[in-house]
Design a protein that fits this description.
The structure holds two protein chains of two kinds. Chain A is of the alpha+beta class. Chain A is about 35% helix and about 20% strand. In chain A, the strands form four sheets. Chain A has an eight-stranded antiparallel sheet with strand order 15-12-14-13-17-18-16-19, with helices on both faces. Helix content of chain B is about 25%, strand content about 25%. The chains are: A alpha+beta, B alpha+beta. At the A-B interface, helix 8, strand 11, helix 9, helix 11 and helix 17 of A face strand 7, helix 6, helix 7, helix 8 and helix 10 of B.
């Protein structure tokens, strides 16, 4: 049990509603987006401003209490899972938009502001914030920084690291780091880049300045239908190889198509082996020829049908099935387990064959939904946790898929982060030297290992855990959110 | 040339560690004019060259650190591709390792990103003599801390880069430059519009009272945009390369040249446009000044660094004692063997 003096100090410095210790009230904070990874925090604190953040960190540091920072709790790797005797620092009350600078095309916001709220605030000016993780209606920009979040459009517009110009970070030792700002670079080491995707291990983000882009005036979505999965995979390479960079390029296999169609009726052909969704955007003069080229490439690559959505409603309908793919697949089995491997595009075909093989070996169906343009796969392993040994088998199968991703030159996580759940696969991805280097890097910012301890980087001694996005009885955590 | 000297270079680092000697990492010395005094025995990457992997439809190229950027350009040209980032080539001498260590960017940076943005992975040797691989060849990768991008602009002080993977893009079908004779205030106004409106811009340069805007994309889009933005003059094909590589006549003066980085929306140093070449829609400017520009008030995080011909006494580093940067250096290079004296 941590030092009760810590609570006394919190109470002396923070307004009462910002401190939660009541077991019932703490319960919603026990997990992030992965509800299987559950832990009750000792205390939840919800600061309203940066001074309170600093106070909380100072008290925690003085009394050696670990701190887990949480944004909106939508993460998919258990990165914000609380620690039993620790503080859960929840940033959701810090949600002011501090400044929109139309000359610079930047917005400066507090970390609890949701991803979508930034775009909403500037849409009337014809601007938007590009990275669009599927949880964008709920996920916070501070969490996006911690995970280096992507989204459907990062093929063309980049990840969080490419769209954030500056942040303010509070360290556990009480220093404020002002990293970047509205300039494109700053003197010294690129700590801004280092903080992106650092999963709350190095400091607490208290302010974020993002780049705003002009809305593309025209947008169209193509739906390519294939009778063969590998032909669809080849079309992905052909489109990229032909010099077209789509805003988004997504692929679904037969199982995922049928599930999505039954669920939302997007008009997908249920007898297809695969579909490709390709979004092209820009000026009309840019999009017209691109649509013609991609249509030709898909047809030449064996697409049995190519349809084009031109109105906003049609585009939305095409996307609807893709965006509903996770919950749709969730209806096929009591549980599913979501992987997040990222592979070179040319290896997509091989990885899919291997997934098919593993699916037979472990006798569990796998639906495939992925950001094909980026080579980022989300195989969904279907299982029933009530059947003896099936969870274990699903985890083993998932682990094998990720190991194969690494073997073909890919990575264990493209966008969901390591958190708690991929600690084991980190040992496949990295050797001893790299892991030790990560630990030394962490110690440079947090010598007492108080910031989100035990996450993201495995101790060399461990590497025994397997994990994933566990969904029981079709209940996705945050069912109101789109997952894609 | 395709020569792998990874083991030799690693052994050299290990030897330096064992014998407590410092190393000064060197490529082709294309940026030696920066003039930072580095002590240590020279360790050259020049023998460590060649492309390790290049598949055009992956949009990635992986090469050894000593490979010249001009060799990468030539290989990419054959496949009708270009580097996504556009670092200065400095007479074709600049190497891949040097481009990463320096982190400089050409005039397209606000639209196509910097070396840091285009870098997907590195292999390096740290100050313990360990060979390590971070990132990789895939576009999306959030496993572990982003050590690759930390190497950009670190000037070789955190480790010896052995090889790296950079993102590449299709070569634009069509390029046109729109030129307008305007004063600084108008150039500032127009540059801000370029950030606000979805034109296919890929670079700007303001010099000698002329604003050059490069448009790239498919032909239809570029033609329409150039008509919207005004007159399209024929500009010498090499203009943008000359600006990027400091071969433009502006850069031929034998005076102290400073690089100034400014906030988006700013436009150079307003009271002195004749002595400047302004890129990045206003956010990167080059200026000749005899004074110490590093103390100039530049607003909103703007800062100046000496670049060429600046008096040695102005080449002072920032005070990083007792900072997280200092600790980070220690985390990678505890004995301080890499590039002692280098200012980052």
């Amino acid at each position: 049990m941590p030092n009760p003096r810590v609570l006394e100090l919190f109470r002396a410095h923070l307004p009462p509603p910002s401190i939660i210790t009541d077991p019932a009230a703490v319960r919603p904070f026990e997990t992030d987006g992965i509800t299987a990874l559950r832990e009750r925090p000792w205390v939840v604190v919800l600061p309203e401003n940066v001074e309170q953040v600093r106070t909380i960190l100072e008290i925690s540091y003085d009394h050696d209490v670990p701190v887990v920072t949480r944004g909106a709790g939508t993460g998919l790797s258990g990165g914000a899972r609380p620690i039993r005797d620790g503080v859960l620092l929840t940033m959701s009350k810090m949600r002011n938009i501090i400044d929109v600078d139309l000359d610079a095309c930047t917005a400066t916001v507090e970390p609890g502001v949701t991803n979508l709220a930034i775009s909403d605030a500037v849409r009337s000016q014809g601007l938007y914030y590009a990275p669009d993780p599927s949880s964008q209606i709920a996920c916070s920009i501070g969490g996006n920084v911690a995970e280096n979040s992507g989204g459907v459009h990062c093929l063309k517009y980049g990840l969080t690291v490419h769209n954030v110009l500056g942040i303010r970070v509070q360290t556990i030792e009480g220093e404020e780091l002002v990293l970047g700002g509205k300039t494109y670079d700053s003197p010294g080491y690129d700590l801004l880049a280092l903080m992106m995707g650092s999963e709350g291990m190095l400091g607490v983000v208290t302010e974020v300045t993002v780049k705003l882009l002009p809305e593309p005036p025209d947008k169209r979505v193509l739906l390519g239908v294939y009778d063969d999965l590998s032909k669809a995979g080849e079309s992905v390479s052909d489109i990229i190889g032909a010099g077209v960079i789509p805003a988004g390029l997504e692929m679904m296999d037969a199982l995922a198509i049928r599930a999505a169609e039954e669920y939302v009726h997007a008009g997908y052909p249920t007898d297809a082996a695969a579909i490709l969704l390709c979004e092209l955007d820009g000026s009309t003069s840019q999009v017209d020829p691109d649509v013609a080229r991609v249509t030709d490439i898909m047809k030449a690559g064996g697409a049995i049908n190519v349809r084009t959505a031109t109105t906003e409603e049609e585009c939305e309908l095409f996307w609807k099935g893709r965006k509903a793919a996770f919950p749709a697949v969730g209806r096929l089995a009591p549980d599913y387990y979501c992987m997040d491997g990222s592979v070179p595009r040319h290896a997509i075909g091989r990885v899919l064959s291997e997934i098919t093989r593993l699916s037979k070996v472990y006798q569990l169906p796998v639906a495939n939904v992925f950001h094909a343009g980026d080579g980022n796969l989300h195989p969904l392993v279907l299982y029933d946790a009530n059947n003896d040994g099936e969870l274990r088998r699903a985890e083993t199968l998932g682990g094998k898929i990720l190991e194969y991703c690494v073997a073909v030159g890919g990575t264990i996580t493209g966008e969901h982060g390591v958190g708690v759940e991929k600690l084991d696969q980190m040992c496949v991805q990295f050797g001893k030297a790299e892991l030790n280097q990560f630990h030394r890097l962490k110690a440079a910012f947090d010598p007492g290992a108080l910031m989100n301890p035990g996450k993201a980087i495995p101790e060399l001694a461990r590497c025994s855990e397997l994990g994933g996005m566990h969904v029981h009885d079709g209940k996705v955590p945050h069912p109101e959110l789109e997952r894609f | 040339m395709n020569v792998d000297e990874s083991e030799k270079l690693t052994a050299s680092v290990q030897y330096a560690i064992e014998h407590d000697r410092a190393i000064s990492i060197e490529g082709n010395r294309s940026k030696a004019f920066l003039g930072w005094p580095v002590e240590g025995e020279t360790l050259s990457t020049l023998g460590h060259t060649g492309i390790i992997d290049y598949r055009p439809d992956e949009l990635v190229i992986t090469a050894r650190a000593g490979t010249s950027l001009s060799e990468l350009d030539a290989v990419l040209r054959d496949e009708n591709q270009v580097l996504a980032c556009d670092p200065p080539r400095f007479g074709g001498k600049g190497t891949l390792g040097g481009a990463i260590a320096a982190g400089f960017s050409g005039p397209g940076r606000p639209w196509h990103g910097s070396v840091r943005d285009g870098l997907l992975g590195v292999e390096l040797v740290n100050g313990l003599g360990e060979r390590m691989q971070f990132g990789g060849q895939v576009m999306k990768n959030v496993a572990g801390y982003d050590v690759s991008r930390l190497m950009v602009g670190a000037r070789g002080t955190l480790g010896l880069i052995l090889s790296a993977s950079l993102k590449v893009l299709p070569r634009p079908q069509c390029t046109r430059t729109v030129v307008a004779g305007v004063d600084g205030a108008e150039a500032c106004h127009r540059s801000r519009q370029l950030l606000r409106k979805p034109y296919p811009v890929s670079g700007t340069c303001y010099v000698d009272n002329r604003l050059y805007v490069r448009l790239e994309g498919n032909e239809e889009a570029v033609v329409v945009a150039s008509q919207t933005l005004g007159e399209s003059l024929t500009v010498e094909g090499s203009f943008w390369d000359q600006v990027r590589d400091h071969e433009h006549s502006f850069f031929r003066k034998d005076r102290p040249l400073w690089r100034v980085s400014l906030a988006r929306g700013a436009f150079g140093i307003p009271d002195n446009y004749p002595a400047q070449l302004v890129e990045w829609a206003g956010s990167q400017t080059w200026t000749y000044l005899d004074d110490d520009v590093s103390t100039m008030e530049l607003g909103e995080g703007g800062y100046a660094t000496p670049f060429r011909n600046v008096a040695a006494d102005l080449l002072k580093g920032r005070d990083v004692e007792d900072s997280y940067e200092r600790r980070l250096k220690f985390a990678f290079d505890p004995r301080g063997i890499f590039n002692p004296g280098m200012v980052v």
